[in-house]
Structure formats: C-alpha cells, structure tokens
Amino acid sequence: MAGSLPPAPELALAADRLTAGAATADAVRHALATLAGTAASVAPGREVATLPYGGPELLLIAAQLNVSAPAATLFVERRHASEAVVSALGDAAAALDRDQPAAALASLDAAAAPLALLQDWRDRPPLLGYWMTIAGDLLDAARGIATATIAGNPAAQQAAAARYAAASKTARGADNALAVTIAEEGSAVTSIPLRRLAMAVREAVDLRPALQTLMHPGS
To answer: What are phi and psi of 122, to 5 degrees?
Structure first.
C-alpha cells in the first residue's frame, strides 16, 4: 500500500490464484485426513500432518481481497493527494525564498485538485481533518505572501508572513497527524484478508517438511 502503483490489480490477482487453488486445497486436506485415518489403523501414535484450511477458507479470503481492491485504490489516491499538497507547499515556500512569487502561485495552484479530492472524503478521520486545516492555513498564507509581493504591498506581505509563521508552528504536529492517519487507514483497508492469507501461506510452508518425512521416512 505504500508503493506508487494501484494495488487493485495485485489484490485481484491474488484473489484469482486463491480461487484457482481452492479445489487443490480441498483435495490435499481430504488426502491428509484419509492418510491420518490409515495411520491410526496401522501405526497407532504416528502423527500425520493436517491442513487446517480448505477451499471454502481460500474462497473467503479471495472474496475479501476482491472487496478490498477498490477501497485500496481509493486509499492510494488519497495518500498521493496528501503527498501532492505537501510537495506543493514545499515548492511554494522554496519559490518564495528565491523571491519568485509567480512560481510560488503556480505551485500553490497545483495543490488545488489534490486538496479538493481530500475535501470530498466523507467521514474522513479527525486527524486528517486537523492536518487539512493546518495545510489550508499554510496554503492561504503562502498565497497571501505571493500576491502581496507581486502587488508591491509590504503591509499585506508582512501580515501574510505572520499568518504563515503562526501556522508553521503547528505544522510538525499536523504532519504527525497525517502520518498516523495514513498508517491506520492503510492498515484497515487490507489488513484482515492479507493477515489471513499470510497465515495460510505459513501453514502450507510448515506442512512441507512433514510431508517430506512421510514420503521419505528414512531421510
């Protein structure tokens, strides 16, 4: 979820592979159960490995991954939007430091679309709302500095600079709020199915040595 590519195709591919492997999982589980029954008859006390899941469990994980795919894509779009706003602010501040107010305005204009995407997020996390408030204050103040500089209005420029300085004092806390929001929202989107998938894979990997022992008892 931290990469730049949309996660939906990978989640859908994983779901397809789980669906395709459901029948195999059922067959393996049935074969191991049969083997356990045979071992209990001819070699009492002999432990036989079992597969704790079958096709239905894999199909459930696949369904959860398919449901998560659109939400994951939307999350990545929102994460990229927040990054674009931060980048625009940084570029604008750098342009103002170089006494290039027109370039600063161009950078600030680039923040409009990603900020609008975030503003359209219904029921957005409170911490994100806090970050958006501070980011909005910084954007407005930076725009005020740039426009006042172009207009040659020192009083307006100083007033905007004071607003920017005030907002900057809370910027670090706002950035921390954004980081927490991204981590929590990203985890909430796919953590359950991915955790179940990881567990299923681990159980399959753990099963292999036991099967090797059954197939080659003398090794």
So the answer is: -75, 145
How many other β-carbons are positioned within 10 Å of the β-carbon of residue 54? Answer: 18
pTM of the model: 0.61
Q: Are 108 and 139 in contact (CB under 8 A)?
A: yes
d(CA 164, CA 89) in angstroms, rounded, equals 11
**Structure confidence by residue, pLDDT tens digits, 154-174:** 999 999 999 999 999 998 888
* CA contacts within 13 A on the Cβ side of 103: 11
Model confidence at 121, in pLDDT bands (50, 70, 90)?
confident
CB hemisphere CA count around 21 (13 angstroms)? 20
> What's CA 173's distance to the chain center, in Å?
21
